[in-house]
Amino acid sequence: MAEQVYFEDIEEGAEIPNLMKNCSTQQLVQWAAGSGDFYQIHYDKDFAQSTGLKDIIVHGALKNAFLGQLLHDWVGEGGSIKKFGCSYRGMDDAKEDINCRGVVTKKYSESGENFVELDIWTENPDGKKTTPGTALVTLPSRN
Amino acid sequence: MAEQDVAESVITDEMREAIGKESQPTTLDVEKTNCRMFARAVGHKDPIFYDEEHAKSKGHRSIVAPPGFFGTPAFQPGGGRGEGPPGRGYSIPYKRVLNGGTEYEYFDSVCAGDTLTSTTKISGFTERTGSIGPMLITERETTYTNQDGKVVARMLGTTIQY
Fold first, then answer.
1. In chain B, domain spans
2. Pairwise CB contact (< 8 Å): B68 & A68
3. Which of B31, B103, B108, B154 to mutate against chain A (most A CBs within 10 Å)?
4. Domains, chain A, ranges and CATH?
5. How far is A14 from chain B (nearest CA, A)?
6. pLDDT digit string (tens) for A91-137?
7. What is the C-alpha separation between B55 and B112, in angstroms, rounded?
8. Highest CATH level, class, for B1-30+70-75+83-162
9. What's the pLDDT at B84?
10. Does the beta-carbon distance from A85 to B42 stay under 8 Å?
11. pLDDT value at position B78?
Protein backbone atom coordinates (compact mmCIF):
# COMPACT_ATOMS: atom_id res chain seq x y z
CA MET A 1 0.00 0.00 0.00
CA ALA A 2 1.13 3.51 -0.77
CA GLU A 3 1.88 6.09 1.86
CA GLN A 4 -1.09 7.89 3.41
CA VAL A 5 -2.21 10.91 1.40
CA TYR A 6 -3.40 13.93 3.40
CA PHE A 7 -6.07 16.51 2.63
CA GLU A 8 -3.57 19.38 2.81
CA ASP A 9 -1.30 17.79 0.23
CA ILE A 10 -3.72 17.59 -2.65
CA GLU A 11 -4.88 20.26 -5.06
CA GLU A 12 -7.86 20.64 -7.30
CA GLY A 13 -6.92 19.55 -10.80
CA ALA A 14 -4.31 17.07 -9.61
CA GLU A 15 -4.36 13.54 -10.96
CA ILE A 16 -4.24 10.66 -8.51
CA PRO A 17 -1.99 7.61 -9.10
CA ASN A 18 -3.53 5.44 -11.83
CA LEU A 19 -4.34 1.74 -11.61
CA MET A 20 -3.67 -0.45 -14.65
CA LYS A 21 -5.80 -3.51 -15.32
CA ASN A 22 -5.81 -6.13 -18.04
CA CYS A 23 -8.45 -8.83 -17.65
CA SER A 24 -7.59 -12.43 -18.40
CA THR A 25 -10.52 -14.71 -19.20
CA GLN A 26 -9.80 -16.29 -15.83
CA GLN A 27 -10.36 -12.95 -14.10
CA LEU A 28 -13.71 -12.52 -15.86
CA VAL A 29 -14.79 -15.95 -14.61
CA GLN A 30 -13.65 -15.01 -11.11
CA TRP A 31 -15.76 -11.87 -11.38
CA ALA A 32 -18.79 -13.82 -12.63
CA ALA A 33 -18.56 -16.00 -9.53
CA GLY A 34 -17.68 -13.14 -7.18
CA SER A 35 -20.47 -10.84 -8.35
CA GLY A 36 -23.11 -13.40 -9.37
CA ASP A 37 -23.33 -12.00 -12.92
CA PHE A 38 -23.28 -15.09 -15.12
CA TYR A 39 -24.26 -13.46 -18.41
CA GLN A 40 -22.39 -15.50 -21.04
CA ILE A 41 -21.17 -12.55 -23.13
CA HIS A 42 -18.43 -12.22 -20.49
CA TYR A 43 -16.91 -15.70 -20.71
CA ASP A 44 -18.40 -17.70 -23.62
CA LYS A 45 -16.94 -16.54 -26.95
CA ASP A 46 -19.48 -18.46 -29.10
CA PHE A 47 -22.34 -16.96 -27.14
CA ALA A 48 -20.83 -13.47 -27.29
CA GLN A 49 -20.42 -13.75 -31.07
CA SER A 50 -24.00 -14.99 -31.45
CA THR A 51 -25.12 -11.65 -30.00
CA GLY A 52 -23.06 -9.73 -32.56
CA LEU A 53 -19.99 -9.03 -30.43
CA LYS A 54 -16.61 -9.89 -31.86
CA ASP A 55 -15.45 -11.49 -28.62
CA ILE A 56 -16.20 -11.60 -24.90
CA ILE A 57 -16.28 -8.23 -23.13
CA VAL A 58 -15.39 -7.05 -19.64
CA HIS A 59 -18.30 -6.64 -17.20
CA GLY A 60 -19.25 -2.99 -16.67
CA ALA A 61 -19.63 -3.61 -12.95
CA LEU A 62 -16.07 -4.99 -12.79
CA LYS A 63 -14.77 -1.72 -14.26
CA ASN A 64 -16.80 0.11 -11.64
CA ALA A 65 -15.21 -2.10 -8.97
CA PHE A 66 -11.75 -1.27 -10.43
CA LEU A 67 -12.60 2.39 -9.81
CA GLY A 68 -13.53 1.37 -6.26
CA GLN A 69 -10.04 -0.13 -5.88
CA LEU A 70 -8.44 2.97 -7.41
CA LEU A 71 -10.13 5.09 -4.73
CA HIS A 72 -9.61 2.62 -1.87
CA ASP A 73 -5.89 2.43 -2.53
CA TRP A 74 -5.62 6.20 -2.84
CA VAL A 75 -7.53 7.25 0.30
CA GLY A 76 -5.59 4.71 2.40
CA GLU A 77 -6.37 3.66 5.95
CA GLY A 78 -7.12 7.19 7.06
CA GLY A 79 -9.67 7.98 4.36
CA SER A 80 -12.97 6.58 3.26
CA ILE A 81 -15.11 6.29 0.14
CA LYS A 82 -18.46 8.05 0.53
CA LYS A 83 -19.74 7.74 -2.99
CA PHE A 84 -18.54 6.43 -6.32
CA GLY A 85 -20.00 5.30 -9.58
CA CYS A 86 -19.82 5.50 -13.33
CA SER A 87 -21.77 5.29 -16.55
CA TYR A 88 -21.16 2.38 -18.90
CA ARG A 89 -20.38 4.16 -22.16
CA GLY A 90 -18.12 1.76 -24.01
CA MET A 91 -17.14 -1.87 -24.10
CA ASP A 92 -13.71 -3.13 -23.14
CA ASP A 93 -12.21 -6.32 -24.50
CA ALA A 94 -10.55 -8.98 -22.41
CA LYS A 95 -6.75 -8.97 -22.53
CA GLU A 96 -6.57 -5.25 -23.32
CA ASP A 97 -5.27 -2.56 -21.00
CA ILE A 98 -7.84 -0.75 -18.88
CA ASN A 99 -6.31 2.34 -17.33
CA CYS A 100 -8.19 3.50 -14.21
CA ARG A 101 -7.65 7.20 -13.54
CA GLY A 102 -8.93 10.02 -11.40
CA VAL A 103 -8.60 13.79 -11.10
CA VAL A 104 -9.46 15.93 -8.06
CA THR A 105 -12.22 18.38 -8.97
CA LYS A 106 -12.97 19.94 -5.59
CA LYS A 107 -11.87 19.86 -1.95
CA TYR A 108 -13.70 21.26 1.06
CA SER A 109 -14.16 20.79 4.79
CA GLU A 110 -17.56 20.40 6.36
CA SER A 111 -18.70 19.27 9.83
CA GLY A 112 -15.14 18.32 10.77
CA GLU A 113 -14.59 16.11 7.73
CA ASN A 114 -12.34 16.73 4.74
CA PHE A 115 -14.12 15.93 1.50
CA VAL A 116 -12.61 15.48 -1.94
CA GLU A 117 -14.60 15.20 -5.14
CA LEU A 118 -13.09 13.50 -8.16
CA ASP A 119 -13.77 12.66 -11.75
CA ILE A 120 -12.91 9.01 -12.23
CA TRP A 121 -12.87 6.85 -15.32
CA THR A 122 -11.46 3.84 -17.09
CA GLU A 123 -9.68 4.40 -20.36
CA ASN A 124 -9.10 1.93 -23.22
CA PRO A 125 -5.85 1.70 -25.26
CA ASP A 126 -7.23 4.34 -27.70
CA GLY A 127 -7.63 6.79 -24.84
CA LYS A 128 -11.43 6.59 -24.89
CA LYS A 129 -13.19 6.94 -21.53
CA THR A 130 -15.37 3.83 -21.44
CA THR A 131 -16.73 4.39 -17.91
CA PRO A 132 -16.76 8.06 -16.90
CA GLY A 133 -17.85 8.65 -13.32
CA THR A 134 -17.50 10.70 -10.17
CA ALA A 135 -16.56 10.05 -6.56
CA LEU A 136 -16.70 11.64 -3.13
CA VAL A 137 -14.12 10.57 -0.54
CA THR A 138 -12.77 11.80 2.77
CA LEU A 139 -9.09 12.21 3.59
CA PRO A 140 -7.35 12.64 6.93
CA SER A 141 -5.80 15.96 7.93
CA ARG A 142 -2.19 16.50 8.96
CA ASN A 143 -3.42 18.67 11.84
CA MET B 1 -44.82 10.50 -37.42
CA ALA B 2 -42.76 13.30 -38.85
CA GLU B 3 -40.02 13.54 -36.27
CA GLN B 4 -38.52 11.08 -33.88
CA ASP B 5 -38.49 13.38 -30.91
CA VAL B 6 -42.28 13.62 -30.93
CA ALA B 7 -42.65 9.83 -30.96
CA GLU B 8 -45.39 8.55 -28.73
CA SER B 9 -44.39 7.92 -25.14
CA VAL B 10 -43.96 4.28 -24.11
CA ILE B 11 -44.53 5.16 -20.45
CA THR B 12 -47.87 3.75 -19.37
CA ASP B 13 -50.10 4.69 -16.43
CA GLU B 14 -49.15 1.39 -14.82
CA MET B 15 -45.48 2.40 -14.99
CA ARG B 16 -46.19 5.86 -13.60
CA GLU B 17 -48.04 4.34 -10.67
CA ALA B 18 -45.07 2.06 -9.93
CA ILE B 19 -42.71 4.98 -9.31
CA GLY B 20 -41.66 5.15 -5.68
CA LYS B 21 -43.11 1.80 -4.64
CA GLU B 22 -40.66 -0.36 -2.70
CA SER B 23 -40.04 -3.93 -3.82
CA GLN B 24 -40.23 -6.96 -1.55
CA PRO B 25 -37.06 -7.09 0.58
CA THR B 26 -34.14 -9.32 -0.44
CA THR B 27 -31.77 -10.73 2.17
CA LEU B 28 -28.05 -10.48 1.48
CA ASP B 29 -25.54 -12.41 3.56
CA VAL B 30 -22.15 -10.72 3.69
CA GLU B 31 -19.79 -13.62 4.24
CA LYS B 32 -16.02 -13.84 4.54
CA THR B 33 -15.49 -16.09 1.55
CA ASN B 34 -17.75 -13.97 -0.67
CA CYS B 35 -15.84 -10.82 0.30
CA ARG B 36 -12.57 -12.59 -0.56
CA MET B 37 -13.90 -13.88 -3.88
CA PHE B 38 -15.12 -10.43 -4.87
CA ALA B 39 -11.83 -8.82 -3.79
CA ARG B 40 -9.78 -11.43 -5.65
CA ALA B 41 -11.79 -10.93 -8.85
CA VAL B 42 -11.11 -7.19 -8.71
CA GLY B 43 -7.46 -7.68 -7.81
CA HIS B 44 -7.52 -5.92 -4.46
CA LYS B 45 -4.20 -6.07 -2.57
CA ASP B 46 -5.33 -4.73 0.82
CA PRO B 47 -5.42 -7.62 3.35
CA ILE B 48 -8.45 -6.09 5.12
CA PHE B 49 -10.48 -7.78 2.36
CA TYR B 50 -8.96 -11.23 2.98
CA ASP B 51 -7.58 -11.63 6.52
CA GLU B 52 -9.93 -11.26 9.47
CA GLU B 53 -7.22 -10.80 12.10
CA HIS B 54 -5.59 -8.10 10.02
CA ALA B 55 -8.93 -6.38 9.45
CA LYS B 56 -9.62 -6.41 13.20
CA SER B 57 -6.16 -5.02 13.93
CA LYS B 58 -7.16 -2.05 11.73
CA GLY B 59 -10.32 -1.45 13.73
CA HIS B 60 -12.82 -3.28 11.54
CA ARG B 61 -15.39 -5.73 12.90
CA SER B 62 -14.30 -8.45 10.45
CA ILE B 63 -13.20 -8.77 6.83
CA VAL B 64 -14.37 -5.61 5.05
CA ALA B 65 -16.80 -5.83 2.13
CA PRO B 66 -14.88 -4.41 -0.87
CA PRO B 67 -16.25 -1.25 -2.54
CA GLY B 68 -19.38 -2.16 -4.50
CA PHE B 69 -19.98 -5.44 -2.64
CA PHE B 70 -23.16 -5.79 -0.61
CA GLY B 71 -23.34 -9.52 -0.04
CA THR B 72 -24.66 -12.34 -2.10
CA PRO B 73 -28.42 -12.88 -2.45
CA ALA B 74 -29.48 -16.07 -0.72
CA PHE B 75 -30.35 -18.54 -3.46
CA GLN B 76 -33.45 -20.53 -2.67
CA PRO B 77 -34.23 -23.51 -4.89
CA GLY B 78 -37.80 -23.40 -6.01
CA GLY B 79 -37.78 -19.77 -6.97
CA GLY B 80 -37.96 -18.17 -3.54
CA ARG B 81 -35.86 -15.20 -4.60
CA GLY B 82 -38.73 -12.78 -4.62
CA GLU B 83 -40.03 -10.83 -7.55
CA GLY B 84 -36.70 -9.43 -8.74
CA PRO B 85 -36.03 -5.81 -9.53
CA PRO B 86 -39.18 -3.86 -10.33
CA GLY B 87 -39.79 -2.48 -13.76
CA ARG B 88 -38.65 -5.39 -15.91
CA GLY B 89 -42.09 -6.74 -16.70
CA TYR B 90 -43.76 -3.77 -18.34
CA SER B 91 -45.03 -4.03 -21.85
CA ILE B 92 -42.87 -1.67 -23.88
CA PRO B 93 -41.82 -1.95 -27.53
CA TYR B 94 -38.06 -2.03 -26.86
CA LYS B 95 -36.33 -5.41 -26.85
CA ARG B 96 -32.73 -4.52 -26.05
CA VAL B 97 -31.38 -3.66 -22.63
CA LEU B 98 -28.20 -1.87 -21.55
CA ASN B 99 -26.91 -1.31 -18.05
CA GLY B 100 -26.46 2.45 -18.12
CA GLY B 101 -24.52 2.96 -14.94
CA THR B 102 -24.25 2.43 -11.22
CA GLU B 103 -23.48 4.66 -8.27
CA TYR B 104 -22.90 3.59 -4.68
CA GLU B 105 -23.29 5.81 -1.67
CA TYR B 106 -22.01 4.69 1.75
CA PHE B 107 -23.38 5.81 5.11
CA ASP B 108 -21.62 3.20 7.24
CA SER B 109 -19.25 0.26 6.94
CA VAL B 110 -20.22 -3.17 5.65
CA CYS B 111 -18.30 -6.17 6.98
CA ALA B 112 -18.45 -9.95 6.80
CA GLY B 113 -21.03 -11.22 9.26
CA ASP B 114 -23.51 -8.50 8.37
CA THR B 115 -26.92 -9.37 7.04
CA LEU B 116 -28.29 -6.71 4.73
CA THR B 117 -31.85 -6.28 3.63
CA SER B 118 -32.33 -4.50 0.35
CA THR B 119 -35.39 -2.97 -1.21
CA THR B 120 -35.54 -1.36 -4.63
CA LYS B 121 -37.82 1.25 -6.05
CA ILE B 122 -38.11 2.95 -9.39
CA SER B 123 -37.28 6.60 -8.94
CA GLY B 124 -38.25 7.63 -12.43
CA PHE B 125 -38.58 7.01 -16.14
CA THR B 126 -37.27 9.30 -18.83
CA GLU B 127 -37.36 9.06 -22.59
CA ARG B 128 -34.78 10.31 -25.03
CA THR B 129 -33.71 9.84 -28.59
CA GLY B 130 -30.00 9.17 -28.90
CA SER B 131 -27.60 7.69 -31.42
CA ILE B 132 -29.19 4.28 -30.87
CA GLY B 133 -32.70 5.66 -31.50
CA PRO B 134 -35.51 6.26 -29.05
CA MET B 135 -34.88 4.87 -25.59
CA LEU B 136 -36.46 4.49 -22.19
CA ILE B 137 -34.23 5.22 -19.23
CA THR B 138 -35.26 3.68 -15.91
CA GLU B 139 -33.66 4.93 -12.69
CA ARG B 140 -33.76 2.61 -9.70
CA GLU B 141 -32.73 3.15 -6.13
CA THR B 142 -31.77 0.26 -3.86
CA THR B 143 -31.44 0.81 -0.12
CA TYR B 144 -29.33 -1.53 2.03
CA THR B 145 -30.22 -1.84 5.72
CA ASN B 146 -28.07 -3.87 8.12
CA GLN B 147 -29.04 -6.19 10.96
CA ASP B 148 -29.17 -3.25 13.40
CA GLY B 149 -31.74 -1.45 11.26
CA LYS B 150 -29.21 1.10 10.03
CA VAL B 151 -29.24 2.22 6.40
CA VAL B 152 -25.63 1.56 5.36
CA ALA B 153 -25.69 2.21 1.64
CA ARG B 154 -27.70 3.17 -1.37
CA MET B 155 -27.25 2.14 -4.98
CA LEU B 156 -28.52 4.16 -7.91
CA GLY B 157 -28.82 2.16 -11.09
CA THR B 158 -29.74 3.16 -14.62
CA THR B 159 -31.18 0.80 -17.21
CA ILE B 160 -31.56 1.75 -20.86
CA GLN B 161 -34.08 -0.02 -23.08
CA TYR B 162 -34.11 0.70 -26.80
1. 1-30+70-75+83-162, 31-69
2. yes
3. B103
4. 12-23+60-138 (3.10.129.10)
5. 23
6. 999 999 999 999 999 999 999 999 999 999 999 999 999 999 999 99
7. 11
8. alpha beta
9. 53
10. no
11. 64
Distance (Å, rounded) from C-alpha B121 to C-alpha B24? 10
- B1: pLDDT confidence band, cut at 50, 70 and 90? very low
Write out the H or E segment, with its range, that includes residue B42.
Answer: helix B32-42
Q: In the prediction, which pLDDT does B79 show?
A: 54
Closest CA to A62 of A82, A35, A44, A33: A35
User: Confidence band (pLDDT; 50, 70, 90) for A1?
Assistant: low
Evaluate whether ipTM surpasses 0.90: yes
- How many whole angstroms separate alpha carbon A107 and alpha carbon A63? 25
A62 contacts in B (CB within 8 Å)? 41-42
Handedness of CA B111, B116, B119, B120 (dihedral sign): positive
Q: Which of A69, A77, A82 lies closest to B44 in CB terms? A: A69
Across the interface, do A88 and B46 touch by the CB < 8 Å criterion? no
